[in-house]
Structure formats: C-alpha cells, structure tokens
Amino acid sequence: MPKTYKVIQWATGVVGSAALRSVVRHPKLELVGLKVYNDDKKGRDAGDIVGIDRTGGIATQDVDEIMAQEADCVLYCPMPWSLEEICRLLETGKHVVTPCPYWFPFVQNPDTAAAINEACRRGGVNFHASGCNPGGIAERFPLTFTGWCNRIDRITMTECGDCSTYSSEGVMRELMNLGKTPEQAERSPIKAMLAKSWNEPIDMIAEGLGSEVVSYEAKHDYILAAEPIETAVGIIEEGTIALNHYRHIGRTREGTEIVQEQIWYVDDIQQNRLQSKMDLPRESGWRIKLEGDVNLDIDIDFPPELNQDQRVAQGLSTTAFHVVNSVPLVCEAPDPGLKTFLDLPMITGCMGTHSTKR
Asked: Does residue 332 share a domain with residue 295?
C-alpha cells in the first residue's frame, strides 16, 4: 500500500483555504490538524471553515498544540510568516512546505538558510518553498525551457494583472503598494525585503544554469488613480498608486540578464481611470520570454471565458495546489535540509496511487 502522509494546515486565508481543500482531495494526504487565527474559526471543523464536507479536523489557535501534534508535514501559509515558527516546526520532526519566502535564500539570506538547514538537521526533516510566483513561474518554468536553448542572452518573467478582486488586504496594500502614496511606497520597509525575495528566483535560475549573479538592479515606478477605484479591499483613492510596476534584474558572470517583472493594477486594460497609461504586454497572466540563439515567448493564462473573479481564484489556487502536490516529494527527499526545485523530482498533480513497474 502507498504511504499516506499526515498533514497539518497552518492558516486559512485565501491560499491556505485552497490548500486545505486540496489536502482533503489528495489521495496520498490526510488532514490531521488545523491552525487558525480568527476567534470565530476556533473549535470548528476544518470542512465547515472552507465549505466542504466535515473532515473531523478541529481548528485550534494554540501554537504549542500544533507543535506537539503528530504529523509528517505542515503546510505553513500565514501572512506575515515567522522564521522562528518555521524552525520550531522543523525541530519537532515535521517537514514544512510553504508558499512564503525562502525559495532559494542561500545568496540573499545566508543566515536564514543556515538557520533553516540547522533546524532541518535537528528534526531530521526537509523544508521547501513552492507556489506560483515565485515558486514556479519565476524560476522552475523558465529553467525548464532553457533546455531548448544553447546561448541565452536574457530571461524575462512578467506577471501582469488587474487585482481589483484580490481580497488579501496585506498583499494588495503592502506588497503591491496599491492605495499608497508615492511617498509611502518609497519609505516602505517592505521594499528592501521584496528586492531580496525577487532576487531569490533570479539566483536560482543562475544556479540552474551553472552560473552566478554578479550584479543586481531594482526599478520601481507606478501610475496614480485619477479617480476613486473600488476594489475587494476597499477604495483606492484618487492620487494614490493604482498601477505598481517592479523590475528586478540580475546579470550573471557570463552576461545573461535575468529579469523578474510585476505589473499590478486596479483597472481594466484600457486604464481610463488612471492618470496616465502603460503599454501592458497582456491583460493578465504570465509571460516567460527567452532571448538568445533560440527566442521563445511562452504565455500562461486562464481561459478567456472566465470572469475576473474566477481568474483570480484560479491563480491563487495554483499557488496552493503546487504547494500541496510537493508534499510527498519533500517528505521522501533524502538528506535533511532546505530543498529547492533544483533538489526535487518534477512536481505533478496526483489523481491516484497507481505506479507502473519498470
């Protein structure tokens, strides 16, 4: 019989809720615990919280209770996250998989990488950060397509989309700067943290190419709202940021340029409610562009018949599902430590437990 892995879900925000539903459906996983933050979720069945059949898993707010609970893996999905919590979980002998940072922290955050590796060693377990972007589109997918190339001059990953219906206020207003004044955005302490976070996938791509980054550059610009704009997290006021544009660039020793670009906005593609317009590469979704002796444009998008709410929901689900699908591979990976995509086999969806003898 194939092994079933016992999983604790930590946090039930937008991504955490999608992850919880995915754990319940996954044929190799069993939900055994749930950590929540809101008082109204405490003591409730996990299924009731996310609108599925009852699971028997009862939500708790007690961190020590989660630490003491027997499980193979914790899906750690809070915002903000805590390195101390991550290390405590690892030291209790539980693998940790997360959509939070530390995808490839060895260059940007060597002390963090060392702390995670030491906690993994103490617990005899692994840590893996996965997701969508970063966590897939930013590094795993571009690296996959470099296998079709020989000389690579530039790799660009662009995320672009209307975020009006995105319901995470912390992400919208803090990470994306939407609704902030230009002065607030420039003073934000998150700016430096974001640069390190986006440089992590740049470093991972360089490592996957057998190279290293020798210089980094960050560019940040934005467009202000010309009128109040209603969103899922409230009004974006006139004169505040309604389109936020980040570019983080790394250049390798061999001269390859690796670009991570994000264009987040709260209007339709016509941008009629903004003070000026940007030439957007697409309405929403992702584009991976490789330039060299082979030139490739790879567009990743959802079907056009989906409305904006459905597109946002599916986009967030990709983060959760990628995290959940990695659990068996992370639990089975040898040599306890921090595992990146460069250390794991290909992560796929899982519909059953059949395995052909070969």
From this structure: no
Residue 118 shares a structural domain with residue 157: no
Burial environment of residue 254 by CB neighbours within 10 A (0 to 12, 13 to 18, 19 or more): middle
**277 and 225, same domain (yes or no):** yes
Round to whole Å and give the CA distance between 286 and 136.
11
Domain identity same for 167 and 301: yes
Chain centroid, CA 7 distance in Å: 19
Q: Which residues on adjacent β-strands are paired with residue 7?
A: 31, 73
Q: How far apart are CA 87 and CA 232, in angstroms?
A: 34
* Domain match, 296 and 200 both: yes
Residue 241: both structure tokens together? 């940021």
* SS3 state at 358: coil
Contact 189, 292 (CB under 8 A): no
How far apart, in whole angstroms, are the C-alpha atoms of residue 92 and residue 193? 28
pLDDT band at 291 (very low <50, low <70, confident <90, very high): very high
d(CA 81, CA 269): 33
322/319 Cα distance (integer angstroms): 5
Domain count, the chain: 2
29-51 pLDDT, tens digit each: 999 999 999 999 999 999 999 99
Residue 17 lies in domain: 5-130+326-339
Measured CA to CA, the distance from residue 7 to residue 9 in angstroms comes to: 6
Domain assignment present for residue 346? The answer is: no
Whether residues 61 and 25 share a domain: the answer is yes
List the one residue out of 73, 76, 83, 74 whose CA is nearest residue 119.
Answer: 83
